Amino acid sequence: MYDVAIIGCGVIGSSIAYRLSGFDLKTVVLEKENDVAMGATRANSAIVHAGYDPAEGTLMAKLNVRSVDLTKELCEKLSVPYAQIGSLVLAFSDEESAHVQRLYDRGVANGVPGLKILSYSEAKAIEPNIADNVTSALYAPTAAVINPWEYALALAETAVVNGVELRLESPVDAIVKTDAGYAVTAGGETIEAKYVINAAGTEAGLIHDMVLPHTFDILPNKGEYYLLDKSEGTRAKHVVFQCPSKVGKGVLVSPTVHGNLIVGPNAVDCAAGDTSTSADDLAFVRKMAAKSIPSVDFRQNIRNFAGVRPNSTIDDFIIEAHDGFFDVAGIKSPGLASAAGIAEYVENLMRENGVALEKKADAVDTREQIRFKEMSHEERAELVKKDPTFGRVICRCETITEGEIVDAIRRPIVPRTVDAIKRRCCAGMGRCQGGFCGPRVVEILARELGCSRQDIDKDKTGSYIVRERED
Ligand SMILES: Cc1cc2nc3c(=O)[nH]c(=O)nc-3n(C[C@H](O)[C@H](O)[C@H](O)COP(=O)(O)OP(=O)(O)OC[C@H]3O[C@@H](n4cnc5c(N)ncnc54)[C@H](O)[C@@H]3O)c2cc1C
């Protein structure tokens, strides 16, 4: 019998698992895919929003603002890339300048520190490539960019080190109330848990309906992006947003925490799991981005991708307790930015609902990650002397060594796919997008996991790379 079963291991499931792993609980996380962070958490804008956007008094406003400092602390403790670069919302007319003023007022009411309204010349002084017809801008110094999937992975990995059980490829398809709690069927097996936490992203509505009367719908909504090479990475210095308009919410242009430039997203209603991109939608994204920063060079594009927002019919996060079943649903943007505060809120909600939470004496809350290219020459020499695999560069675009790939494979959540390696140590994230290092990553994975190259998928289960049987 488990104390807690968490359904879904995106940033919300992993944040809750991390938080609960500090208590004396037997916890299991049930994730339907073959890795952590395979839903909205792996394809978003990666912004830790400052918190001026959500309406005052909503959970989104409270938990976003509460989480800004918590996220920074967590990234530091767990060795997750984080950069507090600040954000700008650009206005292009008097009407939009009035919107910027409303965002400022809302931000102040939400408790966002350091907000300022800048004139065109003040904005141009700190963000030189913005368009000449900007009328004013809202500056939020606490906004940051992070690596969202590494954040979720680091949280989940630390939870596993603290004894949380993670079951991958375990899609929950039935939940039955029992005298002791709930019987949850996932991947053909039924487990018993006293409490269930529903963190299933775009499928959270389906999970809710297995236990409770239907009260909300999830409305999946797609956002498409360009990811540009590092040669464009300094085109913007801040996260540069636009005001929402008749043709959409406005796209952003921002440096990523890895030094690339990200441009997007649009907003298109779609089916859950539809991460396709289209030429027309991307042309729209390009056109909108050029309004903010006309000089973005889209010839430096290295990847297009899309993520699906778990929007819902409720205009806020849905975090509720019902007789030992906890919904953490409809976690749309700013869900990534709010994840740390959401986990804290869920902990308090559990206490209020009679869950005994006793601190575990030996829980760890930190994690280390080797990043060869960030080391000094002396540190690199030392490492290569100890382990020569750190002297073999596999991904030349990102300078990722064999030692880092092997380290990723030997960590508590074992990666089994080429993209899982990319998410853990950035091999394949560069200009060639794995064109050169991909086959070598397959070889290393097969060698370390003791399997055939045919068994190594690119991404989700079944996305094979090597098809024919080897001799
Ligand atoms: C285009 C876009 C841009 C965004 N930009 C930002 C941003 O800049 N900043 C920000 O704060 N937020 C942003 N967001 C929102 C943010 O990404 C989400 O709020 C957050 O990732 C939600 O996390 P989650 O864990 O709830 O969902 P997910 O990451 O989708 O995780 C849910 C998990 O549940 C699993 N699952 C589903 N059904 C089952 C089942 N039956 N059994 C077992 N497992 C199941 C899924 O496989 C998945 O891994 C953006 C989202 C999108 C799509």
Describe the structure.
The chain is α+β, with helices and mostly antiparallel strands. It has 12 helices and 22 strands. It folds into 3 domains: 1-82 and 145-217 and 313-369, FAD/NAD(P)-binding domain (3-Layer(bba) Sandwich); 83-144 and 219-309, D-Amino Acid Oxidase, Chain A, domain 2 (2-Layer Sandwich); 372-455, Arc Repressor Mutant, subunit A, CATH 1.10.10. The chain has helices spanning 11-20, 59-77, 94-110, 120-126, 148-161, 204-211, 279-292, 335-352, 377-386, 402-409, 418-425, 438-449; strands at 2-7, 27-30, 47-48, 82-83, 87-91, 116-119, 136-140, 144-146, 165-167, 172-177, 182-186, 189-198, 218-228, 239-242, 252-255, 261-264, 268-269, 301-312, 318-322, 325-329, 393-395, 400-401. Strand 10 and strand 11 (182-186) form a beta hairpin. Helix 1 packs parallel to helix 5. Bound molecules: flavin-adenine dinucleotide. Flavin-adenine dinucleotide is lined by residues 7-13, 30-33, 38-41, 44-47, 49, 171-172, 199-203, 207, 223, 265, 307-310, 331-337.
